[in-house]
Amino acid sequence: MTEKQHITIKGVKEGLLFLFDDQCEFSILLDELQNKLEKTHLQVLTGPLIHIHVKLGNRLVTDEQKEQIRTMIRQRGNLLVQSIESAVPETAQNKEAVELKIISGIIRSGQTYEHDGNLVLMGDVNPGGTLYCTGDIYVLGALRGMAHGGVDGRQDVIIAASLLKPTQLRIAGVISRPPDEWVSGDAAMEFACLKEGQMQIDKITQLYRLRKDPIVFKGV
What we know:
By secondary structure, this protein is of the alpha/beta class.
């Protein structure tokens, strides 16, 4: 029985087109690509400079995976990778899915909660309680303790709360102890963000001005 081929090589006007199956594991593709480059397609791939165009189909790949493909093809000195394209929409390629964690309860004094991604807390953060997240922080309650968003250095995150009255806020490396005038006293949820490196406060209804593109979340 003939083994299924996951990579099809076709001649086109600009050179050669590599069509990758988007249904198999990426490691299988790499193994087959290596085999074609070193064994089965030597005759086709031998000669003067050949321009290579790679089509990934509906496969979402990272920059690292694209570089793996480029590096493998470049091992043959006469092959020049001109493009590596995916049919996945550009917005989905450029934004990694962000894990959204939803928890309920109270973060009490002395307690710390950490999450890699975006966090929604349905409850309060008491004075002395701390939240650490690589992404956004949304507190559906009172934020009276400390919250640190973008702990890995991201500066485009927000920290929002129904009652935003923290002892300290941090976004990336920027630390702020919000002044009293940050708290409006009404029922509208507010959020903090960085603008030109400075911590600022605004109503959550104004968030669309900051983020005009949709965010892709991966539920947890």
